[in-house]
Structure formats: C-alpha cells, structure tokens
Amino acid sequence: MFTCNGAAVDVAVADGESLLSVLRERLGITSVKDGCAPQGQCGCCTVLVDGEPRVSCVTPVARVVGRAVSTIEGLDAVVRSEIVDGLCATGGSQCGFCTPGIVVRAASMRARGKTSPADLDRALAAHLCRCTGWQTITDALSATAVPQPEPASKTREMDAFLTPERDEGAAAQRAELEGGVAQRVGADVARGLGGFADDLAPRDALVAVPLPPGSDAESVEAAGVRWVVADSLLDARAFAAKVQGRRTTVESAPPLVLPARPAGGVRLATSWVEPAYLEPDASWCDPGGEPASPLANGGAFGGKDASPVARAARELADATGRTVRSVFSREDVVRLGPKRAPIAASAVVDGDCVVINGVVAGDVAAYRDAAIALPYALTVDATWNEQSVMGPAVRAHDRFVLADHAVLVEGAIDMAGLDRLAIVRDARGAAVVLDTCAQSTSGALAGARVHLDARGAVEGVEVRVAAGDPLDEVVLRSYVIGATHMALGWVLTEAITVDPDTGEVFDLTIRSFGVIRARATPQIGVTIVDDAGPPRASASDAAFAAVAAATWNAIAKHEGARPEQFPARDTPAARALRN
Q: Which residue of 141, 375, 395, 518 is 20 to 30 Å from 313, comparing CA positions?
C-alpha cells in the first residue's frame, strides 16, 4: 500500500480512514500524536509524505498509496539527533507531546534549505505548543537549521551548545517543582517517548469514548460519564457518531457582571479560558489492575486532576473482563474538562492595605483560603463570594488564583501611584525591582516589565525570578517563558464562547482558544536571580502573575485607560498578536 520508514506496509483499512489512524492504531507508531484529530490544527501528527510535511489526521490513507511516509523514527539519525538535542539544550521540549511533529517539520526544512527566520515562522504556523512559549523552540531550530560540517558528536562547538553537561535528575526535579507532577527530561521525551498513557495502551484493548451530545448510541456509564465501547478507536467514534467541533462566530464575553468601580481603584471581569493542553485525557486498565495515569509526563495546568478517564478505564475493565482504553477527543476535552474560573472584582488601596471585593464562578474556597504574600509593605484584605452561572466545570489552579489577586493588587497600586517597595534581593543583597512583582505560595518571586512600541503592541517582556537553587536553569527558564506566553494570552487573546443560557461550550477547535502563535510571540528575556537558599517551587506561577499584571498596567499607561475585561481584545496589543 505504502512504505513507512523504509518498510512496506499493506494493511486493510476502512473507507476514509486517516493516515494517523493507520500509523497509531494499526502500526503502533505512537510517536505520531493525536492532539486534535481530525481538526488538523495542532501539528502533533505531522509526518513526511515523499519528503513533504503533512498533517496525518486529515490525510486519508488512500492519498499515500504507493508513496513514502516517514515519521520521526525514519529521519536521518544525525539530523534527528541535532534537532532533538537542540530542543533539550534550550528547554524547547517540556512534556514532549508536540515535539515529534515539530522535529519532523524541522528536518524537512533543512532538507529543502528553508532555514531563514521567515521560513521558520511559516513552518511553526502549522503547530501549537502550550508549554514552552515558543521562544525556546525557535532558539533550538534556529541554532540547528544549518547542517553541520561534521556530525554533532564530532563538532566541539556544537557539542557545547547541543549537549551541555547537565544533571537530568536535577532538571526533572525543577520540572516537577514547576509543573506539580513528576516529569522526565531528556532526548527520549523530545522524541515523544514521555510515557503518555494512550501511547502505552495495548492496541488490542477495547476502546471507550464519551458519548457526544445528541448521540443516541448504545452506551454504558462509568465515572459519571456515558461511554461508547467498541473493539477499536475508529469503531468507537463511529458508533458514537462523533462530530468534528467547530469554531463559533459568536464573540465570547465575561459571564459575571462588573462591580462598581471604587474611587481611585480598578475593576476587572475575566472570561472562560480553556487550559488547551495538547495531550487529550486518556487512560487504560487491565481487569483488576491499576489504571494508567493521565498525568504521565505533564500536569496539564491542573486540567486533568479530576479527569474521569482513569476511573472509567478501571470500572469498564472490571465490568467487561477485558483491558479497556478510555480516550477523549479534542472536543471531549473541551466539553468535559475544567476551565479557568471567571471572576469579576474590584480593588483599591486603602492606607497600607489593598482591599479586594469580588465574585468567582465556582470553586470559591480556593480564593477565600488563598494566602496572598506581597513583596511590598502592604497587606491584602480580600473578600470573595461564589456566583452560580451556566457554564463548564472550573478548576482554581494555584497559578490562576495567584494571578487574579496579583493583577488586582498591582492595578490598584498602579492607580494609587505608589512606589513599589519590592523586597526581592539577590545573594549579594542587591535589590531586584521591576514594574510588578508576584510571590508564589512556596515563596518563589518574579518581577516583570512589559515594553510596548509606539503603536501599543508588545515588543518585549523582561522577567526576573528568584526561586532559590534553580537546579537546572534551562528548565526553569523554559517554564518561565511558557508562563509568560500564557499570561500574555490570558490578558489579550484567550477566551472561549459559552452559551449563557445552557452552559454549552461553542468553541471546540484548538485554534479557537486564542493561544498566541509562534510568529506573534514577542521577545522574552529571563534573568534568574542569584538567590541563596533551597529550591522553591512555582516560580513560573509567580512569573505568570507578574507578567499578566505588568501587561495590564502597560496597556493602561499607553492607552490612557485601563481595560476592564480580559481578554482585552480591543487594544492595539491584542490586535497585533492576532495578526
């Protein structure tokens, strides 16, 4: 039928079956990832067909008959090693879910001599990465774009960049401190071998998929969800009558009403935000066994903490007496996964105290119990109440609770015209002061400054972090850049549309979430402060909060008015990121 990585392939396929389905489900090549199938929007399933990159989830296998298909395993070993090692050296791979497709496309770029910055921008437009914030990926691909005169192992200069001496154990420890769950670091992760649950599931297992809205397929209940169970993923989705998600034309809007603005203070309403992690929820379980964790190599920003897939796999395996895979599609993730909780709140400086009054759409306990430590000579008096609104489930991740408080505090301080008396100091006692600061619950500190150009577009972001012993500066820098990218998106571009009457999520495609693309991401500079002391966790959470606050304040200064809702889509900064 076709060749794959140099070997002839001849398998029976279903009418209209995709190349991705054949590679993963029939040939067991799980380096080719299913991040959005069949939307064709995340690039995780990119392969080469006769040397040209193709998104395999929207490529019918009939189109590759008689042609040569290459996955990351089929690339030239030296080229693959240079690109993978480059991603490891810069921190361009965190969970590793998106990187195999990026490596494949980068190898194709090199082979065709398409290695300019403009070529790189065009190439990465086909991909999505949620973790890294792009800059570390572009750093790696720029450095490895031109073939070396000798293999990397024989080139001392390349060795110094691509394979620096690093303690992978320490790197993994920093990744866990930032991500909140165990995470491996190394070349195998960048190649897609991070141990994701659905990659390790037996391909002869039964497959369970959630019952989509409106489907009348025969189903069973497990872990509070209705599931369709079949002999294969293809059959399960066909029986469930899965319909590909669409992007709505209805504009998103914050669901909570803004409170009155206090004199000399600020107010803010935020929207539903999709975590947008690329690896869809999945698990598998043998009868009587323990289910595979959906958090195999990444925390998904807290989005999978309460995922039903593991419990469902166990219940269905015990009920059927067979191994069962439970698998979410991208549309299932959006419909069933928790979102960032919207808020509507005000803040004002009253003497030496910042007074916050607000409401949150569910999960109010995390806000009421939050310990807000300021690196300033101020205290916080926060009052939060819960307001019930129609919409998806929410998850009050520590990062988001911290950020909500930080932007309100910093906005109120900015409006009051107070000098910032930051207590961030390096190991030599020198003060480290930027426009905004935030402190994580573990004591990690971050300061940020956002630079706008004459048009009001973000041209650069400076971030400084103090997290004790960094353990591995590459990993810490990567997480901080990723958090910066996410913070810019939260303030300026990211939101999903939810029906206010039914709570139904309308935006179901991965490109409709508003995640900032590679070419639009501004330059991000990270300084790791020489901070004595043991490693402190969640420096990237502090960076997220500080950058979000700094962005809000910078827009207010440039525009002469402070936006009162996120995303602030009508600002020049937001428009520039969407273009």
A: 395
What H or E segment, with its residue span, contains residue 90?
helix 77-90
What tokens were used for 379?
Answer: 């205290």
Q: How far apart are CA 374 and CA 402, in angstroms?
A: 11
Give the pair of three-digit tokens for residue 332.
């299932």
CA diameter of the chain: 76
Sign for the CA dihedral angle at 330, 335, 338, 342 comes to positive
Write down the H helix ranges in 204-357: 233-239, 309-320, 330-336
Name the residue type at position 491. Answer: V
Three-state secondary structure of 489-548: HHHHCCCCCECCCCCCECCCCHHHHCCCCHHHCCEEEEEECCCCCCCCCCHHHHHHHHHH
pLDDT tens digits for range 474-511:
999 999 999 999 999 999 999 999 999 999 999 999 99
Element housing 350 (H / E): strand 343-350
For residues 291 and 311, what is the distance between their CA atoms, to the nearest angstrom? 7
Report the SS3 class of residue 198: helix
User: Three-state SS for 174?
Assistant: helix
H or E stretch covering 86 = helix 77-90
- How many Cβ atoms from other residues are within 10 Å of residue 221's Cβ? 12
| Other CB atoms within 10 A of residue 409 CB | 26
Residues in Cβ contact with 477 at an 8 Å cutoff, skipping those fewer than 6 apart: 91, 136, 526, 528
Report pLDDT digits (tens) over 51-96.
999 999 999 999 999 999 999 999 999 999 999 999 999 999 999 9
Check residue 212 and give left, alpha or beta (phi > 0: left; psi -120 to 50: alpha). beta
Evaluated on CA atoms 152, 158, 162, 168, the torsion sign reads positive
pLDDT in tens, 5-62: 999 999 989 999 999 999 999 999 999 999 999 999 999 999 999 999 999 999 999 9
pLDDT of the residue at 432: 58
Query: Is the pTM higher than 0.90?
Result: yes
CA–CA separation, 233 and 461 (whole Å)? 44
Length of the chain: 579
CA distance 219 to 234: 16
